[in-house]
Amino acid sequence: MNFEFEAVFVLLNKPTFWRIVSLLRVRLMVGHIPLEDGIGVRVPDPQPILFSKNHAIPLTMKKETVKKIVKDKYKEIATKGTSCCCSCNKAKNISKSIGYSDEELKIVGEANLGLGCGNPLAFGKIKEGDVVLDLGSGAGIDSILAAQRVGSKGKVIGVDMTEEMIDKARENAKKYNITNVEFLLGEIENLPLKDNSVDTVITNCVINLTPDKAKTFNEVYRVLKPGGKIYLSDIVLLEELSKEQRNNKDLLSGCVAGALLKEDYLNKIESAGFKVRILYENKKISKEQYNGIALESLMVELIK
Question: 39: which DSSP letter?
């Protein structure tokens, strides 16, 4: 949808307009950037505009650039065996702080890389015999734990876009003799699964890394069976980031720069057709892992 503004558009300041933009997920190609005081500033070339509640920020990173930054970082993590700044003990402490028990961490062993912002299995109601999809399965920590719950009659499918993570997850499953899990290379915006084929979806601090979150939620809705549920933990913003923060590669791969404001995140979920139930909000993680940036870890249950 293309619009060209040749005059001051005061309506941009009204809350109603921002809600409409959020709900419709409109990205405008414009020759003026509207500011909070309603003054249009001319820019040399039309740019995609990422709308937030109070103002518009030029979205300078292309989708493929975002994917490459994320993929390169998690390739590095997979190769090193732990997250970039974590020893094994630190990885264990981080995972315990976001909800994993000592017993769970003993089961998964080297599949724990100290990543994530919650434990979707701590709240997830997974039954024996279920088909479970793990979005952004990494080294396999949640897939391995879910495989134990579904038993021999069930199955877990992990999807990750980083080949090195898929290799590591397969190695871990073999090492711990987990036979009811399969790891597939693919993007969660384009899932390699059939419609209505999954009972439950779990995901841990992954959707914030995708450049097209609306498409991701639509894809998950497609593969879930009617009445199926998602248990997800993810980072959401409580205040808008600066332009510098949005373009910081470390913050992008660290689950911050690509995150959405909480209201916008929930709107995208509802627009995909899900019913939303907020289970838990962890604001302490801001100081524990993110140097006080105004964000939280959100744990929600979504029902198709």
Answer: -
Token duo for residue 70? 């994320």
Q: How far apart are CA 155 and CA 14, in angstroms?
A: 49
On whether the CB atoms of residues 50 and 56 are closer than 8 A, the answer is: yes
Q: pLDDT, tens digit, for every residue of 48-57?
A: 434 334 333 3
pTM passes above 0.85: no
- Residue by residue, DSSP assigns 76-117 as HHHHHSS-TT--HHHHHHHHHHTT--HHHHHHHGGG--S--S
Taking alpha carbons only, the member of 198, 228, 238, 237 closest to residue 301 is 228
DSSP state of 239: S
- 289 has pLDDT over 80: yes
Task: Give me the torsion for CA of 73, 145, 188, 60, rounded to 10°.
Answer: -30
Which residues fall within 8 angstroms of residue 9, CB to CB, at 6 or more apart? 32, 34, 38, 40
Asked if 138 and 159 touch (Cβ cutoff 8 Å), the reply is: no
Partner residues linked to 299 by β-bridges: 233, 280
> Mind listing the pLDDT tens digit for each residue in 170-216?
999 999 999 999 999 999 999 999 999 999 999 999 999 999 999 99
For the domain 63-303, what is the CATH code?
3.40.50.150
* C-alpha to C-alpha distance for 268 and 22, rounded to whole angstroms: 8
Where in the chain is CATH 3.40.50.150? 63-303
Question: Cα separation of 118 and 226, whole Å?
Answer: 26
Using CA of residue 287, residue 290, residue 291, residue 295, what is the dihedral sign? negative
At 33-68, the pLDDT tens digits run 333 333 333 333 333 434 334 333 334 568 889 899
What 3-state DSSP class applies to 206? coil
Upper half-sphere CA count for residue 130 (Cβ side, 13 Å): 26
Is residue 87 left, alpha or beta, with left meaning phi > 0 and alpha meaning psi from -120 to 50? beta
